[in-house]
Amino acid sequence: MVSCAYLTTEHYLKHHDLWKWDITIKLINSKMFGKKEIKSGLGSSAAATVAVVCSLFKAQNLDLDKYKQIILKLSQYSAALFNKKLGSGFDIATCVYNKSIFYKRFSPNLFEIFEDKQKNLDQLISVVTKKWDFYIKPFEFPKNDFKILFFNILNSSTQTTLSVKEFFRFKQANQDVYFEILKNQNDAEKKAIYYLQRKNIEKVRYYTHTARDELNKLSNLILLSSSNKNFVLVEPIELGSIIDEAEKIDGVVVGRCPGAGGYDGLAFIAKKDFDQTSQII
């Protein structure tokens, strides 16, 4: 993925005569992401992609704020090339904006992905220049009152591309059910965010639990219809139990299996002064 980011950004900058000199980038894997050959589920791929694109712009003395939308598109395009357009790209957008966001992904039909790498580069300028139909709106996480705790599941992870493919397969065969559940989940997620900003913990819990229930319902339907033995629930039973028990601890607001879910990790919103992290695990 990093090489995709480098090549696409280099092509864009050279096309606009903004490439002044060649750059060598050295990536160092933080210990918090685990061993580099093991998927941690902490969003390191998206972070590395955006970091490479930003580094190349910065190395050419270009203002990152001025080129934020270009950086976003180059990062999204690079990730799409690598993942064959699987995934929403919310992790890329979050890294570019460096804050909490409302996000609606761009249409998968916005551009094609070719087996010929040169064709992908040839269309890059037109793809980046055109208007994208994603929706991104930053919002302020109330960090003076709450904090986020994230736990990596040691030696475990989820194959995100496999999960996305299974969701897509189910969607194609059961569109009415699929979109009804996602609408219910999305409505609940937005209300949970609304009440989080207003520090109403009771409402945050209620609507977060509603969103969890809807997503778990969909995940279970996919599992029942799947012939792929490697597919795992978005919220595995044992992790769901940890979340339920953790929410009984004073100071823990809500917990989720974030992103693609499965065994990538656990995330909790807790009160700012919560200091009993060891009680959760």
Key terms:
single chain; 281 residues; mainly alpha; two-stranded antiparallel ribbon
Count, helices: 11
Structural class: mainly alpha
| Strand order, sheet with most strands | 3-5-4
Please state the average pLDDT score: 91
Give the tally of β-strands.
Answer: 5
Radius of gyration: 20 Å
Characterization of this structure:
The protein is mainly α and 281 residues long. Helices cover 51% and strands 10% of the residues. It is built from 11 helices and 5 strands. The chain has helices at 2-15, 44-59, 68-83, 90-97, 117-122, 124-129, 160-173, 175-197, 201-225, 237-246, 277-280, and strands spanning 101-104, 135-138, 146-152, 252-256, 265-271. The strands form 2 sheets. A 3-stranded antiparallel beta sheet has the order 3-5-4. A two-stranded antiparallel ribbon has the order 1-2. Strand 4 (252-256) and strand 5 form a beta hairpin. Helix 3 (68-83) runs antiparallel to helix 4 (90-97). The longest helix is centred in the last third of the chain and has 25 residues, at 201-225. The radius of gyration is 20 Å and the shape is globular.
Brief overview, please?
It contains 11 helices and 5 strands; from the N terminus they run ααααβααββααααββα. It is mainly alpha-helical.
